[in-house]
Amino acid sequence: MVKGTNFLNLRDAGDPVEVAALYNEQGADELVFLDITASYEQRNIIIDIVRRTAEQIFMPLTVGGGIRTLDDIRNLLNAGADKVSINTSAVENPDLISDGARRFGRQCIVVAIDPRRVARNGREYWEVHVNGGRTPTGLEAVAWAEEVEARGAGELLLTSMDRDGTKDGYDIPMTKTISERVDIPVIASGGAGTQAHFHEVLTDGRADAALAASVFHYKEFSVAEIKDYLADRGVAVRPAAPPAA
């Protein structure tokens, strides 16, 4: 397991199976497992780690990275994933979104969108990147979000490349814009550094969920602390742990 900044300078953050079990105990709502170099390195995702992770947790597991075919989706679901996240393959073969939704149900298909703010031809917009953030596509993120929803995606995993790993807060304008243009859930990612950032993206940013890595991996605060903070400010959250018998 690794974590970086702006998709670069990756450093070790622990064993994914052990950390997954810890987050399960802390009461996380969902775990997102992304093999961030699988597409760039043209290799398949590590099924064994997915299987061992699924055996340790009792919350939904979303898995992404290196998914290119319907068989890849099937294999991950059979290994214990509840959903799959596709990014590079969705851009290269948009039919994989619609074919996957028809075959396995749209609730299984999460499209990951990794945008970076760019300025071209006198205007600014968020450009979609693929291959772990290495390759710009020319696609405008808002229009692409609308297209993948129309093709059958059940959720969007929206990661700001500009904010990833910075701990400066989520990209609120981008998240809000896309959340207001689609009807499917939007998971905001990239930039969490304080408890207030979670509240901001779920309220001002209109996100349906907030994903974070560094602040949890390096034990800056726990899932329970975030949930208590949000609940105290009127955000509806699931309990961090089952109520005592």
Number of strands: 11
| Beta-strand content estimate | 15-25%
CATH superfamily: Aldolase class I
CA radius of gyration is 17 Å
Query: Domains counted in the coordinates: how many?
Result: 1
Ends distance: 35 Å
CATH architecture: Alpha-Beta Barrel
What profile does the largest beta sheet have?
9 strands, mixed
The CATH topology turns out to be TIM Barrel
Helix residue percentage: 25-40%
What is the averaged pLDDT score? Answer: 89
Uncertain segments: 3-11
**Helix-strand string:** EEHEHEHEHHEEEHEHEHEHH
The helix count comes to 10
Name of the top-level CATH class: Alpha Beta
> Which class do the helix and strand fractions yield?
alpha/beta
Which descriptor suits the 3D outline? globular
How does this model look, in words?
The protein has helices spanning 16-26, 47-56, 70-78, 88-92, 95-104, 141-151, 172-181, 195-203, 214-217, 223-232, and strands spanning 2-5, 8-12, 31-34, 61-64, 83-86, 109-120, 123-130, 135-140, 155-159, 186-189, 209-211. With 245 residues, the chain is α/β, with parallel strands linked by helices. The chain has one domain: Aldolase class I (TIM Barrel, Alpha-Beta Barrel). Strands 3, 4, 5, 6, 7, 8, 9, 10 and 11 form a nine-stranded mixed β-sheet that branches. Strands 1-2 form a two-stranded antiparallel sheet. Helix 8 packs across helix 10. Mean pLDDT is 89; it is low at 3-11.
Features:
single chain, 245 residues, nine-stranded mixed beta sheet, 10 helices, 11 strands
TL;DR?
With 245 residues, the chain is of the alpha/beta class. It has a single domain (2-232), classed as TIM Barrel. 36% of the residues lie in helices and 24% in strands.
